[in-house]
Amino acid sequence: MDEVLFAGHPTDVCLRLPEPIDRATLHRLVTAAQDRLTAAGLRPGGAAALRLPPSLAYVVNLLATWRAGGQAILLDHRLTDHEVDRALARLTPQVVVAPLRTGGGALKIFVDVTEGVTRYADRPAVSGHAVIQLSSGSTGPSKVIGRTAADLVAEVHRYTRIDGVALPGERIILLPSMVHVLGLVGGLLYGLHAGVELVPPERLSGDAVLAAITADTTPATVLGVPFHIGLLASTRPARPLPQLRRMTTGGELVPAAVARAFTDRYGVPLGNMYGMTEVGVIGTDLYGAHRPSITPAPGIEVRESGGELWVSCPASPYVGLSDPSRWSDGWLHTRDAGTVDEDTGLVTVRGRLDSQVSVGGMKVDLTEVEATVAGLTGVAAAVVLWDDGITAYVQPDGPLSEDTLDKLLAERLAGYKRPRALHLLDQLPRTTTGKLVRSIDVLRSAVNP
């Protein structure tokens, strides 16, 4: 780990929170945390569960766990006690790291944390993976996913070969959570390896993101998810932003209207990144030249099988799960519908594989319907599912009635494609990574709490 993440000059700043943290300081903090973890019972081959919000404490304890030869189990701090207890009972870490005290408001991206370490179990980790993550659960229960140290190192090196990533001496304005793969590898691990300064804004607001960009003269790349694009698209900068090179987004597909609003306002590329917790980054289009298509990342193979995208993955990433419909013979079955162009190799993600439904003998792609709904004026976000008929759950952006929405859709969609049920919600449910939840049960409950 020292060779991959701590190489570089000791005085180089790697984090700005907003106080600068240089490599020597970070190394010292990690060493002290490693001593605390081992004193509490963490041994090489054991596991530490980190239930910490985004913070310096999270970064330090994650790196300390690895330096101690342990497996890091990453538990999003927004999980309920019930969800955490179930995960701990299944994964049996030797120690649990959780906050004793936190400071900062709800909109703080990085918070001040005083952490405590408690002993949990006296047994080895359940697998040989370096990190355990829970999937976002946007379509159902979370899966337990493991990645080896070699896999993480390979992905960090993969990032260095992608055209358009932040370069040494530049900055990443880091918006996604480092508990999840985009913020963890594309932000923290790549930044430490490549000598890119990581700058989480002080607050989750458009003005705070712009303030982080203008706080220095060095080039800056904003890393986020579609929610953050909308946040910035609705924020008017008070001055030119010569430091801003691009914004790169991962997660769900970005509605075309939102992408246009961002590029019209800022005049920089809006890059797209496609990936999964199981394998990390799969493909990119960091200059926005091929939207919605992406180019496979170096060393990653993508193929189409029966309309589904498969991604090269030498070993099953799932812990305690042997499901050939998800992984088999070195291929991860993404459950995403898509195509691979034989001539260019470009990959186009069409949405979830289960988005194809039959209405009166006519095939309907729910992804198309959802994109149409989400693209309407007055709609902030939308989820379209099959629930005894095409059903749309819509988050308005201003005054909007179901009758108005239905009339707008009648102008744009054939009758058999139009939603039979429309539900307007003040806020659509989202996962901890900001993805829209697509569970029918959760959405029904949101309509009838």
TrEMBL record:
CDD domains: AFD_class_I (cd04433). The keyword Ligase applies. Keywords: Ligase. Pfam families: AMP-binding, AMP-binding_C. It comes from the Bacteria. Belongs to the ATP-dependent AMP-binding enzyme family. This is Acyl-coenzyme A synthetase/AMP-(Fatty) acid ligase. It comes from Micromonospora ureilytica.
